[in-house]
Amino acid sequence: MKKPEKLKPFFKDYLWGGRKLITEYNKDASYKMVAESWELSAHSEGESIIGDVKLSEFILKYPEVLGTNCQGQDLPILIKLIDANQNLSVQVHPGDSYAKSKGYKNGKTEMWLVLENEKDAYIYLGFNQIIDEKGLLQSIDDGSIVQVLNKIRVKKGDVFFVEPGTVHAICRGVVIIEVQQSSNLTYRLYDYDRVDQYGFRRELHIKDAIEVLNFNVHTKESIKQLPINKNARYESNLLVDCDYFKVYKYSVNSSVIINITEKSFLSILIIEGTTNLTYQELVTEYKKGDTIFVPAQNSEIQISGYCEFVLVCL
C-alpha cells in the first residue's frame, strides 16, 4: 500500500468547542459543536480512518508505511485541528519519564500553529512571575491563577513550541493545528469552575500537575519562521524540528514537488485553498481541511494549485 490516502478524522465535542471546523474546514461531523478534529491519530481514544479501517489496523497490516525513523509499529504522533470557542483549561503535560512512571507509553510534547484568530485573541504560556507551589495553590483556590500566567496576544501564522512541564491554555477565538506526541495525558490545574452538560465540574489533577510543572518564568514569543526555500512557485518554512517530529509550512503559487523517502511517512493538512496531488499517474483533488497520509517510500508527489499546507514527518 503506497499511494496517498485521505484520512477521516475523529471528532471531540468538548464543552469549549465551536462551529468553525464544520463551517470553514469542511468537517462532516454529526456534533453541533466540534472542539477537536483528530486528523492523524492511531490513539485508542480517537482514531483516524484510512479507507474503511482504523489507522492502527492499517499500520499493523502494513508497518512499513511509517518508515525506518519510526521505532516499533505504533504511530508516535497525533495531529489535531482545534477550535477554541471558549478558553481551554489551564493545564500541563508530563514528559516521557513521568508518564512512563504512571504506566503510559510517553509524555506529551506539542507545537501550535495559529490558523485563525479573532480580535485580541491570546494564549497563556508559562508564568509571568516567580511563584512557588504554595502561591500557585492559593491562586488556584481563589481563582486568580490566570493573573500569574504569561499572556501572549496571537495572530495567524504564530508558532509556539510547548515543552512538557509548561503551564498553558489555548484561549477563545483561535483555531490552531496542534502536532504532538501520541498522548492524551493532560493534568488540569484550573477550569474556571465550569460545569458540563450534566452539571458536573471537570476533574482537576493538582497533585500530578505540581509534580511535573516547570515554575520558571516563561516570556518566549512566537517562534520566528525563516524560509528554507522561496521562489516564484512556492515558499516553504521549517516551523519545528524536535526529537519527536518535524513540521513544515508550504505556501504554493503554482506547484511544488515533495520527495518521499523510506525514512518517514508524510502527513499533509491543507489549511487554505484547493490542490491537485499527483502521485505517479494518479491525480486527486483535495480541499481546505483535508489530511492526506503518504506512506514512506522512495518516490515523489506534486502538489499543484494555489494553496497552503502543513507537512509533518518524523
Walk me through this protein's architecture:
This protein is mainly beta and 314 residues long. It has 2 domains: 5-212, Jelly Rolls (Sandwich), CATH 2.60.120; 227-313, Jelly Rolls. It has 5 helices and 25 strands. It has helices at 20-23, 55-61, 96-101, 133-142, 206-212, and strands at 5-8, 10-12, 36-40, 42-43, 46-47, 49-50, 53-54, 77-84, 90-92, 110-117, 122-127, 149-153, 159-162, 168-170, 174-181, 187-190, 227-230, 234-241, 246-252, 255-260, 266-279, 282-287, 291-294, 299-304, 307-313. Strands 1, 6, 7, 17, 18, 19, 20, 21, 22, 23, 24 and 25 form a 12-stranded antiparallel beta sheet that branches. Strands 2-3-8-15-10-13 form a 6-stranded antiparallel beta sheet, with no helix packed on it.
Compile the SSE list and pairings.
Elements: E1 5-8, E2 10-12, H1 20-23, E3 36-40, E4 42-43, E5 46-47, E6 49-50, E7 53-54, H2 55-61, E8 77-84, E9 90-92, H3 96-101, E10 110-117, E11 122-127, H4 133-142, E12 149-153, E13 159-162, E14 168-170, E15 174-181, E16 187-190, H5 206-212, E17 227-230, E18 234-241, E19 246-252, E20 255-260, E21 266-279, E22 282-287, E23 291-294, E24 299-304, E25 307-313
Name given to the CATH architecture of the largest domain:
Sandwich
Number of separate helices: 5
Q: Taking all residues together, what is the mean pLDDT?
A: 96
Structural class: mainly beta
Strand elements, count: 25
Name the CATH superfamily classification of the largest domain.
Jelly Rolls
Contiguous uncertain segments of 5+ residues? none
* Element string (H = helix, E = strand): EEHEEEEEHEEHEEHEEEEEHEEEEEEEEE
Helix content: 10-25%
Radius of gyration: 20 Å
- Relative strand content: 35-45%
Looking at the structure, the CATH topology of the largest domain is Jelly Rolls
CATH class of the largest domain: Mainly Beta
Give the biggest sheet.
Answer: 12 strands, antiparallel
Q: What is the overall shape?
A: globular
